[in-house]
Amino acid sequence: MIDNSAYILDICRRAKEASAVLANVSSALKNKALLAIAGKLVDRIEMILRANEADLAVAEENGMKTHMLDRLRLTEKRILDMSEGVRQVAALPDPVGEILWGTVRPNGMEIIKKRVPFGVIGIIYESRPNVTCDCSALTLKSGNAAVLRGGKEAVNSNKAIADAFREGLLETGLPEDSVVFVERTDRALVNELFGMRDYIDLLIPRGGKGLIANVVENSKVPVIRTGEGNCHTYIDDVFDRDMAVNIVINAKTQRPSVCNAMETLLVSEKAAPEILPVLAGELASRGVELRTCDKAGEILKRSRPDVATVTATDDDYATEYDDLILAVKVVKNVDEAIRHINRYGTGHSEAIITNDYAHAEEFRKKVDAACVYVNCSTRFTDGFEFGFGAEIGISNQKLHARGPMGLNELTSVKYIINGNGQTRG
To answer: For position 2, what pLDDT does the model report?
Structure first.
C-alpha cells in the first residue's frame, strides 16, 4: 500500500487533470451528467442504505449521541431528496462564463470580466452523508473538481454516494475524477491535504468548531470558514405571541443538531413575564434543557415551578450545543440584545420577533451576521431554502463568500483583454 503522502498526491493530481476538462465543458453536458447522477442515486437506494446501516451500527457501538446519529442516518426519503436536489442544481443557471463587467478603454482596448471555476475544491467534513451529494453536485455544475474527505463515521455511506456520482460522470463522458473521495480514514490525511496548494485551489471545512479551527489554522491552501452557528432569537417588547412560540419551537427543536438551530433565546424584560412561562412549558415538553440567567430563572420559579432550569454561565452563552439545550437570557431592550449577539454570536444567523418596525430596522442594521431574520426562524439559513438548489456550506466569514454558498460562490473571475496592437507607452 502506498503511503499517505503519495496517496493524497495521486488523488489531487487526478482531480487537477479532471478540473482542466471540466472548466471548458458546456452547461448542457454538465446538466446531462447531473441528471444521470440523480438517476444513479435512485437506482442505488438499497446499496446506499446498506452502506449507511453499516456506518450506523459502528457509530451506535461506539456510543455516538442521538443527535449525531440523526445527522448520519439516511432513509429512502433522504436519498430521494438528495436526488431531487441534484436535479434542482441541474436546472439552475450556470454561472461559468457569465460576463460581470466590461468596458472599452480610450485606446480601443476591450476589457471583459467573467466568471470562471476555481479549479479543484477540497471539502473536509464530518458525519453527514448528504454533504457528499450536495458538494459534488455544486462543484460539478460550477465546473470544479471535488476532493472529498468525510468523517470516518460515514465512510461507507459517503463512498456509496460518491460512486454514484463517478458512475454518472463516466456514463456521460466526463472524467470520473471530477469527484474523488478519500476512502482512507487516517486523520493524518487531513494534514496532507493542507499542503496540496499546487493542486487544490480552495478548502472548505464543514463540521464542528474543532474541525474548522484545525483547517483554518493549519492549511496552506486558501480556506472559506463555514458552519459554526451560535444563533440567537430575540423576542422584543411588542410581539405576536403565537408567532413567537412557533418560531422559537421551530428554531430550537425542529432539528437541533444543525448549525442554523437556535442556541440562545433573548427576551426583553417587558415581554419576559408573559412569554417565558409559555415557552418554558413548550420547550420542556419537547425535552429541551433550559440554562437561564438569574432574571429568567426567577420568573420561571414563580410561574413554572414544574420546569427545571440550570443557571447559565458565560460559557453557555458562547456555546453551540447542537443538542436539546437552550441558553435563556432576559435583556433590557433591543440595544442590549444586539450587544449580546455581537459579543457571543458567530456571525451566522440571528432573528428578532417584533411588531415594532423601528426595532426591526435597528436589528437589521446593527447585528453583524451573515443572515438576519425578522419574524421568522433561523432554520431557513440553507441553500435549498434560499433557492440555490443546495449549498456547499454556510460561510460566517466576510471575505469572498458570506451566508449559504451556492454556485456563484464557487467561481472566481478572469479578465479577458482584446486589442488590435495596443502597446503601453
So the answer is: 73
Q: Quote the CA–CA distance of 176 and 158 in Å, as a whole number.
A: 16
Class of domain 4-224+405-418 (CATH, top level)? alpha beta
Among candidate residues 403, 357, 398, 397, the one with its CA nearest the CA of residue 378: 403
Classified as helix, coil or strand, 240 is: coil
Cβ count near 409 (within 10 Å): 23
Q: What is the grid cell recorded at 328?
A: 435563556
Task: For residues 310 and 316, give the distance between their C-alpha atoms in angstroms, rounded to a whole number.
Answer: 10
Helix (H) / strand (E) element for 209: namely helix 209-218
| Max Cα distance, the chain (Å) | 84
> Could you report the per-residue pLDDT of 264-284, keeping only the tens digit for each?
999 999 999 999 999 999 999
Half-sphere exposure for 188 (CA within 13 Å, toward CB):
5
Side-chain half-sphere CA neighbours of 147 within 13 A: 33
How far apart CA 111 and CA 419 sit, in angstroms, is: 9
- For the stretch 17-38, pLDDT in tens is 999 999 999 999 999 999 999 9
**Residue 322 to residues 61, 67, 408, 421: CA-CA distances in angstroms?**
21, 8, 29, 61
Query: What is the grid cell recorded at 300?
Result: 420561571
Q: Which sequence spans correspond to the domains of the chain?
A: 4-224+405-418, 231-380
Query: According to the CATH classification, is domain 231-380 in 3.40.309.10?
Result: yes
